[in-house]
Each structure stands twice: as C-alpha cells, then as structure tokens.
Specification:
The chain is of the alpha+beta class. The protein has helices at 50-61, 92-98, 116-129, 140-144, and strands at 8-17, 22-27, 32-37, 40-41, 67-75, 81-87, 90-91, 103-104.
Length: 147
C-alpha cells in the first residue's frame, strides 16, 4: 500500500537560471523542465541589487551542467515543477534563505514541513546578521540605542 505522502525525487542537470526563483533543468529522461523553488520568495527584478545578488548566488551554486536532485512537491497547470533543489545533499532553497537572498514564503512553507524549522531559523539568523535583503531593514533596537 502506498503512503499518502510519497516523496518524488527527480535526477536532473541544470541547463539555466531564469528570473528569481526559476531554474531550467534537463531530467535524466532527457526532458527539459522548469522548476519553481518552493518554500521561499526571492526578490523580484524591481528590488535591485537584491534580485541580482539572489540570481548570482543561484548561478554560483547551480552552474549550467551541474547535477541536482529535485524534491518535487507538485506540478502546476503550466507543467512547471514546484520543488526543492538539492546539491550535494543540501537544499539550495534553504541556502538562499540562510544567506539573506530569499525569505520564507508563508504560503508554501508547509511544502517543506520536515525542514520548516530550519527555514525559520535560517531566516532569523540572516535577519539578525543583516545579510542580503535584511541590510535594507533597520532593526528597532538599532534606531533606539546607537552602538
């Protein structure tokens, strides 16, 4: 009998990075797929330089030709895979949050139920260290008492 929650892993090779959270991959079957990163939101093109930093991070972590494993959460009506990408057993989605290049997406974080706490901790640490997009936000404590 099948479990209600079946993990579907896809072996693929990166063929390109689209805007913000879109990755193009070639599955081991030879099929080209578009993957939207789940559980996170990246800055959009109007939020430069943060969108450029996020895209650069993706290109560095996922160079064309690199092998990846995709944990497919679902597939939307446009036949786009919604999922989490792993390189060397580490979540690229989670790495983006930890470096301040993405924020946790409250609408899709339940897609990453097993690692939800890790995402929230990574975001809190990035915010506390004022990494990436968190540089633009001045914490209330900094405004009240200068260091």
């Amino acid at each position: 009998m099948m479990n209600l929650f079946e993990l579907l892993l896809v072996l693929a090779t990166v063929v390109g990075i689209g805007d913000s959270n879109i990755i193009r991959v070639k599955e081991d079957t030879g099929q080209i797929q578009t993957v939207k990163l789940t559980c996170i939101n990246l800055p959009n093109a109007t939020q430069k330089p943060y969108s450029l930093a996020a895209t650069q991070e993706l290109k560095q972590v996922l160079p064309v030709g690199s092998p990846v494993v995709i944990r497919r959460v679902t597939q939307n009506e446009g036949d786009r895979i919604i999922g989490e990408i792993f390189v060397d057993n580490q979540s690229v989605n989670l790495r983006l949050v930890a470096k301040g290049n993405a924020v946790v997406d409250q609408d899709s974080i339940d897609n990453c139920e097993e690692t939800k706490t890790q995402y929230l901790i990574a975001q809190a640490n990035a915010k506390n260290k004022r990494l990436g997009i968190w540089q633009q936000i001045t914490p209330a404590t900094t405004r009240k008492s200068p260091r």
